Each structure stands twice: as C-alpha cells, then as structure tokens.
Amino acid sequence: IDATRRSSLQGTQRRILFLGGMTARKGLPTLLDALVRLPPQFVLTVAGPDATPQSVLALARRAGVQTRVSAVGLVDRRSVAALLNEHHVLAVPSYQETFGLVCAEALACGTPVVATRCGGPEEIVTPDLGRIVEPRDSVALAAAIELVVSSERQWQPDRARAYIEERFSMAALALRLERHYESVAHRA
User: Fold this and answer.
1) CB of 135 within 8 A of CB of 116?
2) Which of 19, 16, 17, 23 is nearest to 96 (CA)?
3) Which residue in 36, 22, 1, 10 sits closest to 145, CA to CA?
4) Long-range Cβ contact pairs of 60-65 (< 8 A, separation 24 or more)
5) Which of 33, 37, 73, 127 has its CA 20 to 30 A from that of 142?
6) What does 15-81 look like in DSSP terms, one character per residue?
7) Rounded CA gap, 146 and 42, in Å?
8) What is the C-alpha to C-alpha distance for residues 87 and 14, in angstroms, rounded to an integer?
9) How many other β-carbons are positioned within 10 Å of the β-carbon of residue 87?
10) Among residues 57, 108, 61, 60, which one has the least CA distance to residue 80?
11) Is 117 helix (H, G, I), strand (E, B) or coil?
C-alpha cells in the first residue's frame, strides 16, 4: 500500500465507496441494506451523477443508516483516484453492467472490489482481488465487504495494479487485437 493510501486508511472507520449513478440498476438500495448488516465502524461514501446529499440521505434514512453515509456528488476524473485511495473497498452492487470500468479503475488504484455478478465485473474481479456476489443479495454483499476489509493486511495493491495493466492497458489490448487479426488472417 502506498503512503498516500496507507495514511488515508488510518483510524477505526472502515470506508466503503460507491461510485456510480443513482439509477435503479446500480443497486444502491442493496448496498444500503448491506450497510445495515455491517458493524457501525463501516461507513459509506456515495459519489456519482445525481448523488446529491439530499437524494442519498433520503435513501439512507429509509434504511436507517443516515449517520453512516455521506454523498459527494459528481466528481471529476482526477478526483476518482483520490476517492478510491481514501477507501478500504469499492462496492459495485449493480443489477446490470456491460463492463464495469469502475472495477478496473479501483484495482488500478490498488483498491479491492466487491461487486455483483451482473455482466461485467466478474470478467475483471478475481478472488484474490475482491469478491463477486449475486445481485440483490445484501447479506452476501455485507459478508463479502467485511471479509475483504478484514483481509486488508494480506491485500497486495501492486499485484492488483499489475493485473489491470497486463489485461486492460492499451498495449495489452493492442497485442490481443493484433493476435486475433493474425489468427483470422491465417485461417482465411
């Protein structure tokens, strides 16, 4: 863990980040229900389009966790990395994702991910980089978040960064595409 990340994670709070829109398919209510099931030192930051304090706190109030939730709204690209480094885990409780770019961004920052099996994240998050649970299962989501955060001492952020670079960097994608074209040309 780099010095910036290590200093951001000191203290007793266990910080969860939700980085996404407020649309139903993003699953924020499931995450709020999971937060209810977690010990009180777990807190949630919600960032993304329409994540105003009023809208987020209204949902949190319904779940009974308003004192453990904060909203930062839409953040610029530079702030995403800073937010990821200030949190113990990224939670992606979506019901549907095509790729899950935020999962790759988190891992590139060295932040573990707990996501749902919803299309994209299961292609990115491996068991040593986080956990995948079924959508709409707040019990499993809470258990996975607690497990990942409690395993922090074994977490290897450099390994996560290397994995993302190896699989998703422009150079890696170009090489795979080149090999695919060669394979197609050879068969033709």
Assistant:
1) yes
2) 23
3) 36
4) 60/32, 62/32, 63/29, 63/32, 63/33, 63/35, 63/36, 64/36, 65/32, 65/35, 65/36
5) 73
6) EEEEES-SSGGG-HHHHHHHHHHS-TTEEEEEESTT--HHHHHHHHHHHT-GGGEEEEE---HHHHH
7) 9
8) 8
9) 26
10) 108
11) coil
The CB density around residue 183, as the number of other CB atoms within 10 Å, is 10
Place of tokens 């909203």: 71
As a whole number of angstroms, the distance between CA 127 and CA 90 comes to 15
pLDDT tens digits, the chain, 188 residues: what are they?
454 555 557 778 999 999 998 999 999 999 999 999 999 999 999 999 999 999 999 999 999 999 999 999 999 988 999 999 999 999 999 999 988 899 999 999 999 999 999 999 999 999 989 999 999 999 999 999 999 999 877 888 999 999 999 988 888 778 878 887 888 888 87
What are 61's two structure tokens? 């109030």
CA–CA separation, 103 and 87 (whole Å): 14
Amino acid in the structure at residue 100? G
User: Is the model's pTM score more than 0.85?
Assistant: yes
Q: How many C-beta atoms surround the C-beta of residue 106 within 10 A?
A: 32
Residue 141 belongs to what H/E stretch?
helix 138-150
